[in-house]
Amino acid sequence: MSLPWAVAQLGWIAGPAVIFLFSFITYYTSTLLAACYRLGNPIIGEQNYPYMDVVRSILGGTKAKICGLLQYLNLFGVAIGWTVAFSVSMMAIDRSNCFHKKNNNSLYNKSSNSYIIAFGVIEIILSQIPIFDQLWWLHIVITIMSFTYATIGLALSIARVAENGKFKGSFTGISIDTVTQTQKVWRIFQALGNIAFAYSYSIEIQDMSKSPPSEAKTMKNATLVSVVVTTIFYMLYGCMGYAAFGDMAPGNLLAGFGFFNPCWLVDIANASIAIHLLRTYQVYTRPLFGFIEDYAERRFEHSPFVTKEIEISVLGFRPYKLKVFKLIWRTIFVILTTGISMLLPFFNDVVGLLGALGFWPLAVYFPVEMYIAQMKIPKWSTKWLCLQMLSVACLIITIATAAGSIAGVVLDLKSYKPFRTRY
N or C: which end of the chain has fewer CB within 10 A? Predict the structure, then answer.
């Protein structure tokens, strides 16, 4: 949703080029990671399922702990991002209805806090469902939701371009007349983070492939197809959104209220996003939930607080066994992400910061270092130097994007008062 805004900051030349660059980096480093799936021999070597196990097997325990910390911090941050995104979509529906009733968008003055709290309450309930990730029909519903809002956003952008009769925008992006020179620099960095977030992923290995061919080959082929399809859609979405609005491209294409009509179609798109995020929050947080709960059971295996279960009768079903520790820990986690989201409800700033913090360490540094160690690439050789240059370049981009996003948060906080300002 933030790609049109990101392209607007970069312009017609740098915008598509950066999207393509991140797609190439994502594909390439994914192939490096795939080569490390089996330790030693790529066909008969020992398999490594969790990402941390791969790092531990190849780079040692210390780096595995750092990797795990970064992984789970990224998951925590993404949970905050999804909470903010949900409130943004719900407010867009509310704002749309307000506009069509009063024919004046400026009359809308409502805080996002109520929607953030509602999202938190729902997630507390969903987090206690033990087989949430095994509900096959839910995956189908969410996939439909994803295609629905994405297709609507693209179609509305194309329709707006046809209505305008031209492509808006410029080769250099948002003009200095619209923002100051300093703001433009920070926005460019922030845009890089938004694009990085679109390509970043919380890496985990789920072995559902059969061999032969080798799992590494299957992973590479699957990654190539997914990255190509994703990049084509990202290009269309980012560029058509920019062509439709130019410098005025909203931070969230469907929730920035660039589209007023047809209101029912925009509402369907935002409702699809909201439903999608309800499940996505669970997908991203389950690994973190499981890690903490497994550690607690190992560390305090004789503690009644950790092991005690409460049976809850469910009409027509077997009694549901609920662990007290699980209930309290997951509830505290959701409350924490909800509270932070209310403090920092800034969509593009949060997305840019998450993209910056998650992209280099998880998607570039560790795959590069593991590949070098796995393939025993000689130090200072041409290939070693190229891989290190790629890693350093991505580190520089990460630092720049993090700085831009932090600057955006600081700027927003000057006019935003937590729990009081209507945002």
Answer: C
